[in-house]
Amino acid sequence: MLSDTAHYFRKAAKVMGIGQRVQRVLERPQRSIKVEITVELDNGDLGTYTGYRVQHNRARGPGKGGLRYHPTMDEDHAIALAGLMTWKTAIVDIPYGGAKGGIDCDPRSLSPREVERITRKFVGEIHEVIGPTVDIPAPDVNTNAQIMAWIMNEYSRFHGFSPAVVTGKPVDLHGSAGREEATGLGVTYCIEELLSRQGETVPEKRFAIQGFGNVGSWLAHHLHERGGKVVAVSDIGGALYRKDGIPIDALKDYFDEHRTLEGFPEAEAIERDDVLFVDCDVLIPAALGGVFTAENANDVKAKIVVEAANAPTTPEADEIFEKNGVIVVPDVLANAGGVIVSYFEWVQNIQQFRWELEEIRSKLQRYMRNAFITVWDLAQRKNISLRTAAYVVAIGRVGKATVLSGL
Ligand code: NAD
């Protein structure tokens, strides 16, 4: 994964003709810390974990990025994902740099009290290097609004009342309206922008979505609400297909009750990974990284791939898509809705003022549209892919801020 991010960065850097020296400055993380976390588990044993926080670049503002709790979390992952955040925040032009972190624990094998103790211990170790003007964590894989609330509370014990130290908090504890749907809605806005450039609209199109978690389910909801036909969806347990469109509201109700897609009576069950290869117009990976590879990219029938997940396309698959004329809207642009509404949450916390949902949605749409237009126009002008154009925009902005601040 580290090499994928580096590959895309270098490809864009080559198009821009930037020198080795600037390239080196932009590629390396500014700060990477690693801490040991020892806590007493519920059964009296000691649990030991390693926590990471990487601030990749802070030239345009404080570091911004999620915290991931996963046994595979390590420094390489944190560096690669922090780099992605640097480019993402620059593409959508919000005043942040990029950061990421996490702990190599498996929350599924821990009780809520154990997760709380681990989280508070982690904050105790890193509170001096995060903060509303330094680095603002947010939820990522296996972390949620409750964990953000504990982080805010623990940080505030050291530094006084500080809601702006994390985003993605519960709405009842200084969180923002619209944060939960933000990434899926942002992807929807992106799709609308792209289709409008082809003289088409959502209701004319068929969509397939891999993943029915936060991003996938909100995306399905918003596409369906606009009249789009979501013909296939999947989650870790399986996939569903219906040629004339799955009734998404009924599926959401079914999923809320059963916590699985399996057994939903109004669509046909298909093999889980076939969701990627069904006949559809727009394919949206919204689950995992590394989904499209040299082995399967030629089997994709969709002519548009919109990366709601982070890093779903390997560089080899990306080249195959380009050769096959598949338009790929890259992760750094497509899934930026979450960090944009995180930015709105931070602004509301600093102002101690609340915005209504409609205001959040219209601001989100404006940020997504502006970013899309900038990237699209550059790609057209230079005859490069949307991914390369997105990185060119980002590297240009971060590079300029770095040079203006003084190397
Ligand atoms: P989530 O944990 O809520 O949902 C993940 C979904 O993927 C679940 O439905 C799960 O069952 C499914 N899944 C897992 N393995 C699968 C497989 N092999 N085949 C099909 N489905 C599978 O996570 P999320 O928040 O929806 O995030 C999804 C992706 O979007 C991740 O790549 C994440 O990094 C990215 N992302 C999320 C946000 C956000 O705001 N949540 C923002 C930017 C990017």
The CATH topology of the largest domain corresponds to Rossmann fold
Got a strand count? 12
Structural class: alpha/beta
Percentage beta strand: 15-25%
- What is the succession of H and E elements? HHEEEHEHEHHEHEEHEEEHEHHHH
C-alpha Rg (nearest Å): 21 Å
Which descriptor suits the 3D outline?
globular
Mean pLDDT: 96
Number of helices: 13
**Unreliable runs:** none
Q: What is the H level of CATH, i.e. the homologous superfamily of the largest domain?
A: NAD(P)-binding Rossmann-like Domain
The number of domains: 2
Strand order of the largest sheet: 9-8-7-6-10-11-12
Characterize the main sheet: 7 strands, mixed
Q: If classified by CATH, what would the architecture of the largest domain be?
A: 3-Layer(aba) Sandwich
Oligomer: single chain
Q: Helical percent range?
A: 40-55%
Describe the structure.
The chain is of the alpha/beta class. It is built from 13 helices and twelve strands. The strands form two sheets. Strands 9-8-7-6-10-11-12 form a seven-stranded mixed β-sheet, with helices on both faces. The protein has a five-stranded mixed β-sheet with strand order 1-2-4-3-5. 50% of the residues are buried. It binds nicotinamide-adenine-dinucleotide. Residues 183, 210-216, 234-236, 272, 286-288, 308-310, 335, 338 line the site of nicotinamide-adenine-dinucleotide.
